[in-house]
Amino acid sequence: MDREDFLPLVESVWQEQVHGTMQFKLGSKLRNLKMALKTLNNDNVGDVATKSIEAKVALDARQLLLDIQPLDTNLRMRENELINEYTLSLQAEEDLLRKKSRIQWLKAGDRNSSYFFKAINGRRNRSKIHSITGDDGSLIEDDIPVKNEAIHHFQNILGCSMPVRHGIGTLSNIIDNVISND
């Protein structure tokens, strides 16, 4: 955890006395901890996107003042503080978005859901060769001509069209397997 007050908060909530069965004690302590962590989050982190916007607005306002008074050292020092605040708020926002994306993936990724398939297809589309520039400089966009141009290009580089060892087959067969009609 990035916050220095996180562990002391967990420890203090966990040390609170709760009476009842072991299961009731555990449930109560977890419930109390959840409320305390929500309060900590709202007090210290809050709406990360809003804080980023506010930091950017404050930085822009300070930089406008600096345009008017470029020699004022106090304004320059405050600008540096605002730059640091803005950078930290952007990092916090990025961290939050990264965590949310992981949570989204964990919730939907392993259930063969539509989200899972959209993510996989998105990856496939990003790694697919949609077009290639031929030796003559022309743009080739159809799948078969792209495949043929790739074969031609690599045969020119490698100098031959001999079969590849270990039973894989010819370069044409390899490219047929990689470039599909998805």
Summarize the structure in words.
This protein is 70% helix and 2% strand. With 182 residues, it is mainly alpha-helical. The chain is flat. The model has no long low-confidence stretch (mean pLDDT 79).
Shape verdict: flat
From N to C, what is the helix and strand string? HHHHHEEHH
Number of domains: 2
As laid out across the biggest beta sheet, the strand order is 1-2
- Spans of at least 5 consecutive residues with low confidence: none
Oligomer: single chain
Total helical elements: 7
Spatial gap, N to C terminus: 43 Å
Alpha-carbon Rg, integer: 29 Å
State the total count of DSSP E strands: 2
Main sheet makeup? 2 strands, antiparallel
Please estimate the helix content: over 70%
Overall pLDDT level: 79
Helix/strand-derived category reads mainly alpha
How much of the residues is beta strand, in percent?
A: under 5%
Compact overview of the structure:
This protein has 182 residues and is mostly helical. The protein has helices at residues 6-15, 22-44, 48-68, 73-108, 114-127, 143-158, 171-178, and strands spanning 132-133, 139-140.
What is the fold's blueprint, element by element?
Elements: H1 6-15, H2 22-44, H3 48-68, H4 73-108, H5 114-127, E1 132-133, E2 139-140, H6 143-158, H7 171-178
Antiparallel strand pairs: 1-2
